[in-house]
Design a protein that fits this description.
single chain, 265 residues, alpha+beta, 5-stranded mixed β-sheet, 5 strands
């Protein structure tokens, strides 16, 4: 797809699910007249495209390869240099594709994200710097450090005392478990995508660091699997969160109370 950023360093990716995108308008475009009677376009009005095109995941995020740290990105206002040469949905043009208003991230402070808007597709495209998490607050390096701390600690409770000392234990455990589950799911998928590099490795931060001989791996891996970011879970990829297993409705649950007496022969 002919989409580029400065020096052709941006790659468009898809993100499944409407919750992951930032859409400015909920207004439905004009129908194509193929529905119920009386729904044809009025005089002088053109039939617009369908609200959701049947072409797969909705394109809403682009990896912006800045080559900067989060501090440098903020101090140099890196969002001002972010560029998309054409619309990912309509590379042939004619869709009213133009630069749109930016939005601010909660963290790092002062960090803004550049966006473009496709008028025909009613869709915005965010240029996410490679060091920022997708669907989580903070940077990939910070999440990676937290998960590595969990892997190195004897228990999650012990890790929470180091990583989230100011948060009560239940909240700290939820915070750590959410990030550990997402990062490990992403690493398991990346191992399958890079068999020549990571075959046989365990899907842990510690294992991948050892295999690559690097102190930080998530930012590097995001660049290695650019073409597959649409399918990878956050915070590494731009796809949906992995589904959590839920107990079946038919599963038997033991009632609370003391154990029954042992049977005598």
């Amino acid at each position: 797809m002919p989409v580029s950023a400065p020096a052709a360093r941006s790659t468009p990716v898809a993100e499944g699910g409407e919750r992951g995108g930032r859409k400015l308008s909920q207004q439905q475009p004009p129908g194509d007249g193929a529905g119920a009677p009386g729904m044809e376009p009025g005089p002088g009005k053109e039939a617009g495209p369908p609200r959701f095109e049947p072409c797969g995941p909705w394109l809403v995020q682009v990896r912006f390869a800045t080559g900067l740290t989060s501090e440098d990105y903020v101090s140099q206002k890196g969002w001002l240099s972010a560029r998309l040469e054409c619309c990912p949905l309509h590379p042939e043009g004619g869709c009213g594709f133009a630069r749109h208003t930016m939005y601010a991230r909660v963290y790092p402070a002062g960090c803004w994200i550049a966006r473009y808007y496709c008028r025909r597709g009613h869709t915005t495209f965010s240029l996410l710097p490679e060091f920022l998490c997708s669907r989580l607050t903070g940077t990939l390096a910070e999440v990676e450090a937290a998960v590595a701390a969990v892997e190195a600690a004897p228990t999650q409770e012990a890790a929470s005392e180091v990583v989230r000392p100011a948060v009560e234990l239940p909240g700290a455990l939820r915070w750590l478990r959410r990030r550990s589950r997402l990062v490990h799911a992403g690493l398991a998928a990346v191992i399958g995508l890079l068999p020549g590099l990571l075959a046989g490795q365990t899907p842990t931060v510690t294992g991948i660091r050892s295999a690559l001989g690097a102190e930080e791996v998530l930012v590097r891996l995001r660049g290695e699997v650019v073409e597959h970011l649409a399918a990878l879970p956050p915070p590494l990829g731009f796809g949906p969160r992995p589904a959590r297993r839920r107990p079946k409705a038919t599963a038997l649950q033991q009632e609370a109370g003391p154990d029954p007496p042992l049977a005598t022969r």
